[in-house]
Design brief:
single chain; alpha/beta; Rossmann fold; SIR2/SIRT2 'Small Domain'; 6-stranded parallel β-sheet; 3-stranded antiparallel β-sheet; 9 helices; about 20% strand; binds ligand BJW; EC 2.3.1.286; zinc ion binding
Length: about 220
C-alpha cells in the first residue's frame, strides 16, 4: 500500500516545540507571514538568524513523542511503501528512527548558500561568517523555505501523491500552500484521505475522514 503522510507543527507540539498559529505560537507576536520571508531576512538578518539560533538551541532540549515513533514504525511495516513529507524543520522524525524524511520547508540543522544554492550542515555560530564549502562565498543563510520561495522536492511529492492509495495529514493548519493543496491532489487521483489534527484544519472538509485530538494519541491509534 502506497501511503503519503504530511506532517506539520502539531506533530511536534507534544514534544514541546511551539506551533506557528496557535495562541502560544512562534515569532513572539509577529505573524509568521510577515517575518518568514526573504525580505525580512534582508532587512533584519541578525534578528532572523537569532530566531533560528534560539530554535536550534531549543531543539537540543526536546525529544520525539509517540506520534513520531509511530510514524517511524509505519515505515517498517511489511507491504507499506511510505513517503513521509514534513513541513517541519526539526529533526524529530529522524530521531524517532524514520528514514528518508522529505523536509519540504528545509531543515534547522542545515545551511543554504544564497550564492550557489548548495546546502551544508549548519556549522555552529554563523555570526563568524564561515565561507560556503561549495563556492567559498560568505553567503550562508538558514536552509528554510520562506514565503515566496519554492518548497523542496515538489516533483517527487506530486508524483507520490498521484500514485498514493492513502494520504494522511497530521498536525497542520492547512493555511500554507502548496502543502494545503495536497489533499485535493491526492483525492483527485483516487487516494483515500485522512486528517489527524487537534482541531478541524482549514481544509478539513476536503478529507474523507477526520479525527480530532492530540497527535500523540491519534497517530499510534491509526498506525497500530
Ligand atoms: C496539533 C497539536 C497536537 C497543535 N496534535 N495537532 C494566496 C492563496 C494561496 C497561496 C498563496 C497566496 N498568497 C501566497 C501564497 C503562497 C504561500 C502561502 O501559502 N501563503 C499563505 C499565507 C496563503 N506559500 C508560499 O509562498 C510557499 N511557496 C510557494 O507557494 O511557492 C510557489 C510554488 C509552489 C510549488 C511549486 C511551484 C511554485 C512557501 C511556504 C513557506 C512556508 N514557510 C514556513 C516557515 C518555514 C521556516 C520556519 O519553520 O521558520 O513554514 S511558514 C510556517 O507555516 C512553516 C510551516 O511549515 C508552515 C505550516 O504551518 P503548520 O505546520 O501547519 O503549523 P500551524 O501552526 O499553522 O498549525 C499547527 C496545527 O497543529 C494546528 O491546526 C493545531 O491545531 C495543530 N496542533 N497541537 C495535533 N498536539
Amino acid at each position: 500500500m502506497r501511503i503519503v503522510v504530511l506532517t506539520g507543527a502539531g506533530v511536534s507540539a507534544e514534544s514541546g516545540v511551539p506551533t506557528f498559529r496557535d495562541a502560544d505560537g512562534l515569532w513572539e507576536g509577529h505573524r509568521v507571514e510577515d517575518v518568514a520571508t526573504p525580505e525580512a531576512f534582508e532587512m533584519q538578518p541578525g534578528v532572523v538568524q537569532r530566531f533560528y539560533d534560539e530554535r536550534r538551541a531549543a531543539l537540543a532540549l526536546v525529544a520525539p513523542n509517540p506520534a513520531h515513533t509511530a510514524l517511524a514504525r509505519l515505515g517498517t511495516l511489511p507491504g507499506v511503501d511510505l513517503l513521509l513529507v514534513t513541513q517541519n524543520i526539526d529533526d524529530l522524525h529522524e530521531r524517532a528512527g524514520a528514514t528518508d524524511v522529505l523536509h519540504m520547508h528545509g531543515e534547522l540543522l542545515s545551511a543554504l548558500c544564497a550564492s550557489c544554492r548548495s546546502r551544508c550542515r549548519w556549522a555552529g555560530d554563523l555570526a563568524d561568517f564561515p565561507p560556503c564549502p561549495g563556492c567559498g562565498m560568505t553567503d550562508l543563510r538558514p536552509d528554510v523555505v520562506w514565503f515566496g520561495e519554492i518548497p523542496y522536492q515538489m516533483e517527487r511529492i506530486q508524483s507520490a501523491l498521484m500514485r498514493a492509495d492513502v494520504f494522511v495529514s497530521i498536525g497542520t493548519s492547512g493555511a500554507v500552500y502548496p502543502a494545503a493543496g495536497f489533499v485535493q491532489m491526492a483525492a483527485a487521483c483516487g487516494a483515500r484521505t485522512l486528517e489527524l489534527n487537534l482541531v478541524p484544519s482549514e481544509g478539513t472538509s476536503f478529507f474523507d475522514e477526520a479525527r480530532h485530538g492530540p497527535a500523540g494519541r491519534l497517530v499510534p491509534d491509526w498506525v497500530d
